[in-house]
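Worked example 2:
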Amino acid sequence: MTPLPKLRLGSIELDFPVVQAALSGYSDWPMRVIAKRLGAPYTLCEVMLDKFINELKDRHHTRRFLWISDEEHPVGGQLMGAVPEEFGPAAVKMVEAGFDVIDINFGCPVKKVLGRCRGGFLLSQPGTALEIVSRVREAVPAHVPVTVKMRRALDDRPESRDNFYEIFDGAYARGAAAITVHGRTVEQRYNGPSNWDLLREIKQHAGNRVVLGSGDLFTPEACLKMMEYTGVDGVTAARGAIGYPWIFRDARALAAGQPLPPLPTLHEQRDILREHFRLAMQIYNEKRAAIMLRKFGIKYSELHPQFEVVREAFIHVSSLAEWDAVLAKWYFDDLPGRRREVHEDSPIQAETCEIG
């Protein structure tokens, strides 16, 4: 591959075009910080409902939802909802909290979300979707980029394809700086392969407008191959980054023409696992942090040569002491890491695909 160009999101220039996607139930502040430290040039918070943000009070136990630290920037806040009038005020509140980009979710395929006319449902409602883009763009300062997350269509019917392009072209016309397109339809959810041929077609249609690709990016090699094959300007690592934040470090190395770095040893994994819990303790109480970290431990365990027993150990963690005990027992010897198996149909997602 030729050297990868920088990625521009409106007024923001990123030094590398592989970024961390918004991940419902996962991409809270600790995960974003870990990804940033391991090479992600930009991260997105987990999607939040516009109405939830508008009603959120500045209280100690709710501050974590809009928690941002200096080392994170630039960081994006993702919004989802059904009522256009709710989006502008919510976007302003997120900018005031410190988010550098406002991303609008028209892609979530979870049944509960669709039933409430949010997320991917709006791909069937071009008028409403474009009104939302306009309201967000008009509400936030001009220097704050507004971006959109979409799937390639609601389903494979011709009218769904027409709706996609109406929203896609209309969003840019209303000031969207970039659009991320997932290569599956909403109807597919997380089943079947992401259609990279359609992503290539969409990028060719977009011309010099900024398009990011998403779907089936479980390895650093896949991140670079998607850009090479489809021509998209950047990609968003989603499920592939859970439990493997080194994907950003590795993608940077490959893009620079260097060999793929060795898999993180058990001591390298241990240090990240310990730091992840320490960061979580800054925004959650100990019990909540332990519960939140179980699902991360399960994914991190896939890199351990005895992953099955280590996974089981993480499942039962309920305190910092128990977390440290798992690390002391299973990460004591600095053994080589294990290359995890790629399960492209793994249903990693929050049940609701939203906060609020």
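Residues 266-330 form one domain. Confidence is low (pLDDT under 50) at residues 345-352.
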